[in-house]
Amino acid sequence: MMKRRILLTALAALVLLGAGAASFSGERAIVPDMNFVGDPIDLSLVKAVEIMQTTGSRAEAAELNKAADEAVARGYKESAKSISDFLNAIKGASISVSSAAEESGMTETNEKIMRMRRDFAKEQVASNYQAELNEIEAMTVQVYYGVLQAQENLKISKDNLQNQKAIYDNTMKKYKLGMVARIDTLTAETQVLSAEDQAAAAETALKNARMNFNLLLGYDLMQNVVLTDGLKMAEEPKGSLTGFIESAVKNRNEIKGAAFGAEIQEILLTSLKYRYPSSSSTYLNQETATLLARKAAQDAPVQIEMDIRARYMDMADKKRAVKVAEASLANAKEGYRLATISYNAGMNTLTDVQKAQIASYQAALGVAAAITDYDLAVYGFIHATGAGTVRLPL
User: Fold this and answer.
1) pLDDT of 243 strictly over 90
2) What ranges make up the beta strands (E) of 48-182?
3) CB-CB contact of 62 with 55 (8 Å)
4) What's the distance, CA 204 to chain centroid?
5) Closest CA to 311 of 244, 253, 367
6) Is 131 within 8 Å of 69 (Cβ atoms)?
7) Which of 66, 78, 65 is closest to 114 using CA atoms?
């Protein structure tokens, strides 16, 4: 009876497995563990950005938005022509026809605005597209550096684990020689366990970063992608602060949008001067809108200049922070070396050695974080001195 029951259970399991295989046939196989698989794909940051800007949903969205902007420009052109044709047709007509034209929006003011919108939209197509490409690049850089930093953190954690094991081995030797108390070995063992936990957490963080990267790039989630760039300081942008500001003021979408908005409001206000008294609600509302638009247009270059100056200083601060972090790491490593020598000579305690090693470990993590922060600041600064990352609605 028992053998028969086992046989039936096995047959049922096989049936379920077969049903499962049938229901999932044609779907991508799920990697059963957390190992990244497949032939390794070597990928530089430049190549990753190129892929993101030319393939996938983000690139498709940018192309679609570009086509939409071109369509908007054509729409303004057609509307301007329709208004122009209508106005030409009613020249010399009666007042009632002119009134109907105004009520329908077929006025010379509206024709002028449509032509302005057409011209602005045509000019803005390329800038909007560049802003979207910049945004895609910024996003790609962010996740690429997320993997680079996670890789470096794992390496640092593994080095820390090896050092803690070395401390433990050294402590055990001293204990066997009767040079230290049992509590020292227990303390050293605890630090090894802690370092193992930190290394495991760093490995988990790296796997999450790699999955996030694969998801963004459109690879299978567990595809083995090897980043060929290392975590090192990016090249500082060449040029003067004055030149960077001039470039941003000339190219940033926010300034173009604010200037165009003010120009439109000025035309609308002018069109009301001879049709509504200055005390009327219609005129006052338009006057307020115009004043606000003027203020926005006047403030936009100053705000962009302030943004560039702030980013420039932040970039300089982060560059100094890398140098400080590197100096701190060098000092911490030397401190650990000296603490180990003193401990072996019986001149300090195990606690002193472990404090020195922990300081070295934390300083190494600090260098990785500082370089990442600096490089992201550099890329952000470069984007800010061009079209930016903001797409203007047309």
Assistant:
1) yes
2) none
3) no
4) 21
5) 244
6) no
7) 78
